[in-house]
Amino acid sequence: MKLPPWLKTNTFHGLRPTKRLLRKYGLSTVCEEARCPNKGHCFNRPTAAFMILGQDCTRNCGFCSVNHSLPISLSTDEPERVAMAAKELNLRHVVITSVTRDDLPDGGAEQFAKTIYSIRNHLKEATIEVLTPDFKGNIDNLKIVLKAMPNVFNHNIETVPSLYNIVRPQADYQRSLDILREARDYSDKYKVKSGLMVGLGERFEEVVTVINDLRKSGCELLTIGQYMRPSKKNLPVVEYIHPDVFEQYKEIAKVSGFSFVASGPLVRSSMNADEMLL
Fold this sequence. Notes:
The protein is of the alpha/beta class and 278 residues long. It is 35% helix and 15% strand. The strands form two sheets. It has an eight-stranded mixed beta sheet with strand order 1-2-5-6-7-8-9-10. A two-stranded parallel ribbon has the order 3-4. The longest helix is centred in the middle third of the chain and has 14 residues, at 109-122.
């Protein structure tokens, strides 16, 4: 399908300085690995969503371009390298995400916690957001991350239940809702956030149901964006959703009780994430 005008963006302006710094510390970002269309905007600020636990994912989701293969062992100095890069970028809000590591007993939870502690050691005033996998529903592993007290706990629901078998075949809709609910119940000292993509063939009513399910699970912050096919091996776009529809989703989410909603064609989970805490 022809790309509509509201989705055309410059992804190259301002990339080099931030990319040089990331390579200096040997780090990956979801911005690059997931081929985000907003990469130029974010790197020019500068900001980045650091991707920890390596570059290889144990899952093979239909929407994601991150490499799927057997992961390598964890890098013990990765938390410190993330913290040093965040300090050099002088970030006021640091986003940490990861590949899914179902091969690890703790799913990578301890690495998330260590990264939070390292950033706090170097950037005491910065706020920290984590975007985690579902840890296969293991609540003890989830609590390792929560105990480190990020300012925002994020776990993306990604899509509607009817599409899980093709979009997130190794995940489970209810399990993701349970992770969010457990995070909300653990403490009220951080915000709970989630996000989803549209344009994969879902119906309007299904998205509304997901919005309400997320709110009932304790989510306060929500992002809704257009799915854009990162490569030919990924699922095709079924529909480019008009900006007016995103505004409808935003109003529905606000009425349901979300304190902040970012809904638009180019909205991504980590883009301008600090604005949700203002």
